[in-house]
Amino acid sequence: MFTDTAHAATRALWLASKRHPFIQQLQAGTLPRATFRDYLIQDHHYLLEFGRLYDLAAERCQVPTQAAQLRANAADLRQGEIATRETFFAEMAITPAIIAATPVAPTNYAYTSHLYRSLATAGVPGAVAGLLPCYWLYAEIGEELATKGSPVPIYQAWIDSYTASDYANAMTDQLALANAVATPTNQAALCQIFKRSSWYELNFWQMALDHEQWTVAKPS
Ligand SMILES: Cc1ncc(CN)c(N)n1
User: 164-173, long-range: CB within 8 Å, 24+ apart, which pairs?
Assistant: First the structure.
């Protein structure tokens, strides 16, 4: 199955994400609040693009049941993960104006661009493969962190949001969709896309930890 192959091919990258200092500090409660705040702002930009990708993939999808699932995924994302973050934003004094004034950081821009590229070059299966590590890796990180928890309530709430049953159900549907769109012909390309998304997931933690900025000048 495609998901087994992709998961096996990215084991080392995923382990690096699970052991990343951002995750370790979040679990220990030592992650600076300013770092988490910046992560939330960048991640909001990311999640908006994620929803748009689902919409675009749904528009292009020729299989009605899969198109319906992609549309449902977009709705679930907006009513679930994106909506959940509103309580975090209130606690961290993150306003729509602050989000709008914060440029998308280079790694975030590159990751979301990779997702659009995956749709452009490998169609709906490419988008599905590119989006899958986002769900799946966070579910695994949430599961691992849940066993220890975090002493900081907002970090614990973040962990809880990835172990909630609706997130787990969405995960199962994503895996089934990925296996449905994979074929012997496209599987190698999908695996490459999945791997690259996994690499960007790892770099996203580092981006947040570094408060990454455009080094020369922000493109307008
Ligand atoms: C970058 C990133 N990757 C994954 C997730 C979990 N949906 C997220 N919120 N942000």
Answer: 166/76, 166/80, 167/80, 167/81, 167/135, 167/138, 167/139, 167/142, 168/139, 170/73, 170/76, 170/80, 170/135, 171/135, 171/136, 171/139, 173/69, 173/73
Q: Taking the CA of residue 203 as centre, how many other CA atoms within 13 Å lie in the half-sphere pointing to its CB?
A: 15
Ligand 1 centroid–CA 134 distance in Å is 5
Neighbours of 94 (CB within 10 A): 19
ipTM of the complex: 0.98
Please state, rounded to an integer, the average pLDDT across all residues of the chain: 95
**How many angstroms separate the alpha carbon of residue 23 from the centre of ligand 1?**
13
Question: What is the identity of the amino acid at 78?
Answer: R
State in Å: Cα 11 to ligand 1 middle. 18
Residues with CB under 6 A from ligand 1: 43, 46-47, 81, 134-135, 138, 201, 204
Enumerate domains of the chain plus CATH numbers. Answer: 2-210 (1.20.910.10)
Tens digit of pLDDT for each residue in 24-64? 999 999 999 999 999 999 999 999 999 999 999 999 999 99
Q: Are 91 and 177 in contact (CB under 8 A)?
A: no
